[in-house]
Amino acid sequence: MTAPDELPDDVAELKAIIRTQQDQNARLEALVASFKKALFGAKSEKIDPAQYELELEDIETAIAQVEAEIDADERTAPVRPPKPRQTNRGSLPKHLERVEVVIAPDLSCACGAERHVIGEDVSERLDIIPAQFRVIVTRRPKYACRSCEGGITQAPAPAHIIAGGMPTEATLAHVLVSKYADHLPLYRQAQIYSRQGIDLDRSTLASWVGRAAFELTPVYDALLANLKRSNKLFMDETVAPVLDPGRKKTKTGYFWALARDDRPWGGEDPPGVAFTYAPGRSGQYAADILKSFTGTLQVDGYAGYNRLFKRQGNAIRLAYCWAHARRKLFEVAKSGKATPIADAGIAQIQELYQICLLYTSDAADE
Fold it and tell me: What is the pLDDT of residues 47-90, one digit of tens each?
């Protein structure tokens, strides 16, 4: 609210200020109510976690918009006591390029002398340069000898993933990361490019992705082989909706993750994970992925992994997840059936967790 001594004397203008503030307050109260509902609403009112984040974003954006509107209006701007200026030096990553802009005042003093520097205030702001498109022009001049006329020489053309094609390898990498890491469909990428006057069909981008995937297959195979040389791995599967054009809907596929992370106990092998797509959840897919692997495999309680015991010589030993076991014991304890046994099991797992924490902390100190 504006300070009393700064309020206008005109009644109509005062009424306008009050109406403006009432409207802003009503909008803020509605947004706060929506915010509380999203955070603390009943389960039946809650939404998918991904949609939940989107809803919070919209609410927070709307609140910031109203607050900016209040601050911009001199009649309704809140009166705040002056606060010391806060700088954000050090909060932005040091590897980012720094572009320094010096804003100097007039150096001439009223007395006729020239002012000298006694200090400075420094602030940092994050700047983003929108994606820049450029054209790499490769010239391969032809040379000949005038003395002997022994023929023409020319440097060979460098090899490209798409021979004679338009994209550079950096362009292919950008399309792949945008599609698979940022979940940006190819048709949306094509729309982004069209705003720069670059007309590319979705089918063209799809062809690029397919050819790049072919070239990356040896890298994936090498990663999978490297993981399977370890003596302990983790495996889990997660659903992946897949388009089913014939039925005009999606079907359920699965990504099987094979992972290694020896950092908690100071292992020398680097962390890594390889994803393999399969149309189902049968344990046979796990067996196929794990061919040539021998060692300990950490899994959840899914019975599909039991077929791994049928291997000749029992080359794989299954290590089940304590978190899943604890969850089952917790459900039994909560139901009231065999509660003492379940409570004893939970207590033992808790002691095991404490030992693991001490071990990992000691390994980190070393």
Answer: 455 555 556 666 677 777 777 777 777 665 555 554 555 555 55
Residue 213: Cβ within 10 Å count: 13
Determine the 3-state secondary structure of 152 from DSSP: strand
What are the Cα distances from residue 97, in Å, to 102, 150, 206? 16, 51, 34
Contacts by 175-178, CB closer than 8 A, 24 or more apart: 175/205, 175/208, 175/209, 175/212, 176/209, 176/212
- Looking up tokens 């006729």 gives 112
CA dist 253 and 280 (Å) reads: 6
Per-residue pLDDT reduced to its tens digit, 166-213: 999 999 999 999 998 898 999 999 999 999 899 999 989 999 999 999
**Nearest residue to 228 via CA among 304, 165, 290, 182:** 290
Asked whether 162 and 208 are in contact (CB, 8 A), the reply is: yes
The structure tokens 């990356």 sit at 216
**d(C-alpha 166, C-alpha 126), whole Å:** 33
Which H or E element spans position 287? Answer: helix 283-289
Q: Which residues contact 308 (CB under 8 A, 6 or more apart)?
A: 283, 286, 287, 290, 297, 316, 318
312-338 as b/e, with b when 16 or more CB fall inside 10 Å? eeeebeeeeeeeeebeebeebbeeeee
Average pLDDT of the residues of the chain = 82
Which amino acid makes up residue 13? E
Q: Which of 50, 46, 48, 47 is nearest to 183 (CA)?
A: 50
Q: Enter the DSSP assignment of 130.
A: P
CA atoms within 13 Å, Cβ hemisphere of 64: 6
Distance in angstroms (rounded) separating the CA atoms of residues 23 and 27: 6
Q: Are 281 and 254 in contact (CB under 8 A)?
A: yes
CA gap 111, 234 in Å, rounded: 76
Please tell me the number of Cα atoms within 13 Å of 296 on its side-chain side.
Answer: 6
